Structure formats: C-alpha cells, structure tokens
Prior knowledge:
Layout: E1 9-17, H1 20-28, E2 42-48, E3 51-58, H2 61-72, H3 76-97, H4 107-149, H5 156-160, H6 168-185, H7 193-206, H8 221-232, H9 236-261, H10 265-294, H11 296-306, H12 310-313, H13 318-327, H14 333-341, E4 343-348, E5 351-356, H15 358-367, E6 377-379, E7 381-384, E8 387-394, E9 409-412, H16 420-423, E10 428-431, H17 439-447, E11 451-453, H18 458-461, E12 467-471, E13 476-479
Parallel strand pairs: 8-9, 9-10, 10-11
Antiparallel strand pairs: 1-3, 2-3, 2-4, 4-5, 6-13, 7-11, 8-12, 12-13
Amino acid sequence: MVHEWSQYKQVPIGRRSMYPYINWHFVRTHSDLNAPWKLVVGAIHNTKDDIVDRMYLAKDFEKEAGRCFDFFTESKKKIDELGKFIEKTHASTVKSIRIRDFKRLSDKELALVLDSFLEGRYGTMFIAGILRLIDVGLMKHLERLARERAGDIPEAVSIITTSDVENFNAREEKALLKIALTLKDKDLGIDSREARDELLSLHDQFCWITLGYYDEKARTLDEYRELLKDRLQKDPKQLLRDMEEKTRKELEARDKLVMRLKPDKAEAFAIVLAQRSTFLKDLNKFNVNEMIYRADPLFAELSRRLGRTVDELKHYFPHELKAALLEKEFLDQKRLAERKRHLVIAAYPGVFEVYEGKDADAFEEKYLKPTETGAKEFKGRIACPGYGKGPARVILGAFDFAKMRKGDVLIASNTSPDYVRIMKKAAAIVAEEGGLTAHVSVVSREFGIPCVVGIPKITTIIKDDEVIEVDAKTGVVRRMKS
C-alpha cells in the first residue's frame, strides 16, 4: 500500500550533490524504529542528476523536532553518549576497511568489509540527522533568549554558541603553519627530508577534509606542498599568533555575552549543548569523510571484480551492492539512467518508499510543491554580521567551484570543508541551511565573511550573475537590478 504523503508539511532543508548509495542511507534513517535515538520526523529527497533537494516531513515540525531537543536536554549524559557513539562507530569502521590488499579476500570476505563500511556510514548519517534536529530546537530557544536579553546584538546566537574546541579546518591550518615555522627556524627548504616527512604526516591526518557526498577529491601531497610553499612566503609565526588572538577574542566575547544574558539552569545547559553540538557535527563530518576516503580501495576492488565503474556502483543502493558482489545481480543501464535522471526517496517513522524515473516524475507532480521564484527580498538569520554586494554564484558542489570569482556572492545550500577555498573569495554568503552548527555558519564567522543563512530554496531562486545585496546586519538579502 502506497503511503499518503500529502498529510505532512514539507520543510525545506537544502540542496546538495549526493551519490544514491549515500542518499538511500540518509533517508532510510528517518524510517528506522529500532535505532537508539529516534528521528521523529520524516524526509523526502527529490534527486535529479545526483543533485538532491532535501526536505523534512512533519504534521507539526517544530513540535516533533522539539521532542528530539527535549530528549537531549534531560541530562548531559545523553549528549556525551552521542559523542561516544560517534567515536566508536568511526574507530570500528575505519579499522575494518583499512586493509592493504583487498584482492586476497574472497567475495564473502569482501562482502563483510562492505557490510562494515555501509553499517558505519548508516550510523554516521543517523547522527547527522539527530544533530540537525537538536539544532532546530536550540535555535528556537536561543533566539528567544537573545531577542529578550540582547536584542541590540543581531549575531548574539552565533556568539554564544562558539565552541571551545577548534574545528578541523583550523586544526589543519595550524598544523601547516607550525610546519612552516619549524622549517624557517631550522633554515630548511621545502624539498628537505623533514619537510617531506611533515607533509606526509599532515596528509595522513587531514587529506579527506575536502571530501563530501559526491565526487569531491581528497587533498594530494602536491596540494599540501603548494599550501606549505605559500605559508613559507608569509610570516607563519605571526599568522599563528593571529589565529590564537582571534580565538581568544571570540571566546571572551562569548563569555561576556553569556554573563549578560544571565541564563537560568535550563538556558545555560542549552548554551552548552549548542557549543557541544557544534563540535560533534564537525567531528562526525570529519569522520564520515575519512570513512569515504578509506573506502576508495574497497570500491576500486568492487569495480575490478564486477566489471563496473566506481561511479556506476555508487549509483546502486546498499543492498544492491551486496547482491552484485555475492549473486552477480546487476542493474541494467536503462534503469541506472532513469535513476540518475530522477529519483525520489521518502520516509517517515516506520515507512520507506523509493520511486525512480517516471514513477518519481508522478510523485513530484502529485506531492512536491513548485518553488516560487519572483520574490525580490528574503529574510534569514545572521551567521556573521557585515555587508556585501556582488554578482551571484550558485554553487552546489565541487563541479561548480571554477565559477567562483573574488567579490562574488556565494549562494549555497550549505558548505563543507572543500568549500573553504572558494568561501575566502566571497564578498558575502547566502545559504539555505540555517542551523546554529551548520558548517557555513561556523566558517563564515571564522573568516569574518558577511553571511545570512536559513533562506529555503534560495539556490533555486537566485541565478548566476544576478546582483545580490547581503545586509548581514539585519539578515536581509535583496535582488538588485543587474
């Protein structure tokens, strides 16, 4: 029996590029009734040419998402358990797939490795969903607190949720600067043995930071060499001091503002939960990226054995990958082409449905609302205060990065670590996702880039080269006459 999806309100999340094997996992978590933590809302991913338009489903979204937030505010132990689950899932998954020679394994043995990888991926997708729902509840509570007691500081929520723990982009940059400083102090060149050893260590710790859910590439040793070369031409000692001073000022501003707010016990815990969630979201994504990176040899071996390209296999669903390996059951090219053209995956607790090709077309026509594109002004949440104006660049993934020029206004669903190099070019940033712990919120503040977030469907409304004004003092984004 087909589920009646019209009974739910659709809440846009954003768009991003994603392979179907990951897409399937993302949505499947919303139907799972046996997980230790429940995703209490549904989801629909409407996908065309691997670009996924994501939305939540709920009869009363704030109320249902609030149940997840309420659960984690019962005690500090619950968020700590979530953190332990992240670490445990990452460690066990990476251990199982770090095999030097997959060729020596039988099909059954390789299937066990594949199972471990897919199970770990599923676990990390579950955590991503939980953290996102916690974020929804946090935003509601903290925005009310900031509005009532710090209404003169528009970016108050961003300030008080600053984490004590550095994000992984900052850790990578500090590690790079420390290598540059050591080489300068020892008067060693970039081609010295010590430089090569340090670069190899840096690569082995961080190279997957640029990965996402599609065909993004890990950093290479040559890329790290160029980054080091750039830092050697500057003053690494001063750059490190600048980073430390910036962190000190941000934490000082956070602590002063929290004191001004005079939060009660429950409000203080919500602030701590937000800070902890910011770190856990960054940690979970970093761990996901490492799993994807470590799985590259696994997919290469699957490709060799099955006579299919890696790209083709990543368009299989998880259970189809296992069937291809053990039963030699393959999807025909026509079905894969239709899946790539249009795929809809829908879930609600206890319900999971997949539509492909013409069935997906019919689902979209019946249930999914068209986007209104005529609005001239949009209101969002301030992630980093300031002002910027320039031609728009809609960036949905690494395949769009070449479009971005210095002074452009970056329009994105969200960002991820691979976006950092183009974010630095932006006069301002506008994003669909508006979470307190969203990558775009955290990194825009780190670099001081004016940023407004939480504007649904903005990547489908704004077109390249439109002149966009971003007033990140009021949270207003305007389309100007070109």
